[in-house]
Amino acid sequence: MTEPQEPRSTTPNHLTSDELSECAFSPETAAAGWLEHAEGCAECSGQLVDLRLVLTQLAELPEPELPESVAIRLDAAVARAWQEADAESSAPAPTRARGTRRSWRKFAIPLGSLALIAVAVVGVGTALLHNASTSPGSASTVSAGAAPQSNGTITDPALAGWVQSVLPETASSATSGVQRPKSSSMAETARCATIPQRAGFTVLTTSQRVFEGESATLVVYQNAQEPSSSTVYAVVYEGSCPNSRSEILAQGSVSR
Amino acid sequence: MREAVRDDAADLECLRRHLAGDREAFGELLARHRGRMWAVALRTAGNPEDAADALQDAALSAFKAAGSFRQDSAVGTWLYRITVNACLDRLRRQAARPTVHYPDPDSAVWRQATEDPTDMAEQRELRLVLEQALAKLPADQRAAVVLVDVQGLPVDEAAAVLGVPGGTVKSRCARGRAKLAASLRDLRNPGGDRDVSVQIDPPAAQDKKRGAR
Known about the structure:
The structure holds 2 protein chains of 2 kinds.
Chain A: H1 17-25, H2 32-40, H3 42-59, H4 68-90, H5 98-108, H6 112-122, H7 127-133, H8 138-143, H9 157-166, H10 170-173, H11 183-188, E1 201-211, E2 214-223, E3 231-238, E4 248-255
Antiparallel strand pairs in A: 1-2, 2-3, 3-4
Helix pairs in contact in A: 1-3, 2-3, 4-6
Chain B: H1 8-19, H2 25-45, H3 48-65, H4 75-94, H5 108-114, H6 121-136, H7 139-150, H8 155-162, H9 166-188, H10 202-212
């Protein structure tokens, strides 16, 4: 029944942290009784002052500047996301939007260095890509980052089957990597003299067929230093006679 | 200072172009928001390394989720939400590990974040203590305080970002602010007993002193 007559009289119930916070943050919506209590209560008014200081200081914290390194990472992540989106849309579905891929290449040239970072981030930074990326055809190499799988291994059964069908017999390849490619597949592209070369790799065999509704050429590369390696690198280029500027439809490593 | 620059129509246009296959649209959207996303990530994650990882997670999530964006919030709010979630996800995954990061006062990012060149020493110390106290708050309280009190979002927008009711945002803020206030009290009154600390007007006195110099 006793009303607090004196300013410093102790009221039994101090304000809760929610109530104090409301009084400090938005006094206009705080219940009148709370503010009244705070005025008369030394402890609550002290806490209110502290809370107001916190709010002022928080609001005045400087806005941190985005570090350059983080900005570069973000750009690379977006570039990588596009590559993955392209790989997803091109791998299973034959309806690939050619137009968007062209515009990506246009986009890739000025941002080449960032895209290379993206390639490294994905972990497709194989020696092959690394070597190739320093060659003049880097624009098509960058779009080639749209590998079917980020780990660089071809898993599309249709594509893997194509690669296996053109590979020389496995039995002898372990002992001598210098296998003659199947003459039939070689003959298909024998007239094509512009097959892209990759630094550190030699062309093992080539094959031509319709891939995802388009004429395409498969080129299998093997490591020039380790021709007997069980891993070869397959690249599917657009067109029947690809050159270093040809679009890459798929690529990745294959075990033979 | 932190007025929410809402150019939502332009943001929506970026999203539309992105979904139509425009390679540069998402970068443009990100360029407009990443400063604020970074500010939220840095303070929600508590250290620059996790903040950078979370921001990258957030950018990729937004990239992929662009098609499912519904206009029940502003694009900026949506990006904040993705950023905060990316930070909280990272913190949750790290909860299994005993490592606790506190802002390193020697790191360039934190120096830059807590100082501005006009600061006086006492202000710098206050900010550092505040940032450290902020980093020690439970993640849900910290996220609420960062959004409402640092970034200046209205409570209902912060509620949309955090996916909780406004009342929950308020009470998380209240608990967080109370702890921050206690830390600043300890700074001003080292060794003092927090429970009976009765300081009516030190901030006002400090301000006057600073102003007079």
